[in-house]
Amino acid sequence: MDRMATRRIERTQESRRLLVAAAAELFAEKGYRQTSFIDIAERAGISRGSIPWHFGNKLGLLEAVVDDRLQAVLTGLTPPAGERPADPLDQVMDFIRLPGTRLFITLLAEAVEVDSPIREHYARLHAALRQGVRARIPAGALPQGTTPEAFTILMVGAVIGVHAQWRVAPEAVDLEAVRAALRALLPPGPGRP
Amino acid sequence: MDRMATRRIERTQESRRLLVAAAAELFAEKGYRQTSFIDIAERAGISRGSIPWHFGNKLGLLEAVVDDRLQAVLTGLTPPAGERPADPLDQVMDFIRLPGTRLFITLLAEAVEVDSPIREHYARLHAALRQGVRARIPAGALPQGTTPEAFTILMVGAVIGVHAQWRVAPEAVDLEAVRAALRALLPPGPGRP
Q1: Which residues of A are less than 8 Å from B112 in CB distance?
Q2: Nearest residue of chain B to residue A93 (CA atoms)
Q3: Do B150 and B93 belong to one domain?
Q4: For the domain that residue B78 is a member of, what is the CATH number?
Q5: What whole-number distance in Å separates Cα of residue A48 and Cα of residue B77?
Q6: Any idea where the HTH tetR-type domain is (chains A, B) (predicted)?
């Protein structure tokens, strides 16, 4: 491939990346429905006409945004090769503070609607979070009557729901006290003394 | 007051009640922004012109809907006089299945937006849920390092977040197994053997 063709592809990928990043910011700030192609193009500094070229329509852009965040979450849950896995508790609590998490809460209302195109993406995200947590629960560490599946649903649920309460009333939710409470309730596991 | 005046007031209250119920259904189904006065009037079987008369504008109607559900939740958390308080665990898990809970998740995206008129209502709802749970935690029942405040944030958070996962992928969330896991993690308290 000649140098001009390579640069053209790089520019195309960069445009796509900028549009996804701008859309993610705007969806988090204003919600999916309230955000227009004009808003996104302005924020990205890229011509509005290129959005349909990259993504087809607005739903295609939404799917690209959710996929992009899903990849970021999956990457965050996978420790670098050779490194000890992080404490799952710290991972899920830190997840609350990620800027991208705001987007997930804002788009949740879209995802739970009947026939939502991103429902499937959310199901994959939740499944990935549960898998990431579950992989770190040592065998036999849970109280009797507790399945690893149910336990991970609770942990991921607590993260989603603590985040929701924190978003609505940050002054009422002491995240460090919540982390300590979670730690006290959970069985010891890898990465935890 | 004569009988005609009494009946007029009753009809007015009944209209208001029907409009709030119709709006709650439609907000849960379609979201707040997608629902029009025409939709609500049709569902309630009441003339569209009476909505501004009752609620001022659409935000007034939204506030009335959230307030109505808040009252229902508070009533649900208060046991009838003389009755033993229900197990808080069963209460929060049962809350997940209430039809009204769907509305809360759908409207959460509205509530977390900056300057949202219903943010304050959500803060009150979460505070009421936490208070209801907290009142039933016996002194000294929590593991060391756990404050009752943080514990109730976790419990209410788990309810919100388990519900979110269940809404997105009901086949992946076994609510009875989750209830058993919560029960195994929690300290014994009133109403629990």
Answers
A1: 102, 105-106, 164, 167-168
A2: B154
A3: yes
A4: 1.10.357
A5: 51
A6: 13-73
Closest by CA position to B161, among listed A66, A125, A75, A15: A125
Give the pLDDT band (50/70/90) at residue B191: very low
In the numeric block, which tokens belong to residue B67? Answer: 């307030």
Contacts for A157 with CB less than 8 Å, ≥ 6 apart: B157, B158, B159, B160, B161, B162, B163, B164, B165, B178
Facing B150 at nearest CB: one of A109, A151, A180: A180
State which residues form the domain around A114: 66-193
Q: Give the whole-angstrom CA distance, residue B108 versus residue A110.
A: 11
Enter the tokens of residue B143: 């593991």
Listing DSSP states for A140-187 in one string gives T-SPTT--HHHHHHHHHHHHHHHHHHHHH-GGG--HHHHHHHHHHHSP
B51: CATH: 1.10.10.60
| Whether residue B153 sits in one domain with residue B97 | yes
**Residue found by looking up tokens 């007051």 in the block:** B1
Closest CA to A32 of A62, A11, A4, A53: A62
What pLDDT, on a 0 to 100 scale, did the predictor assign at position B78?
A: 64
Q: Between B13 and B145, where is the model more confident? A: B13
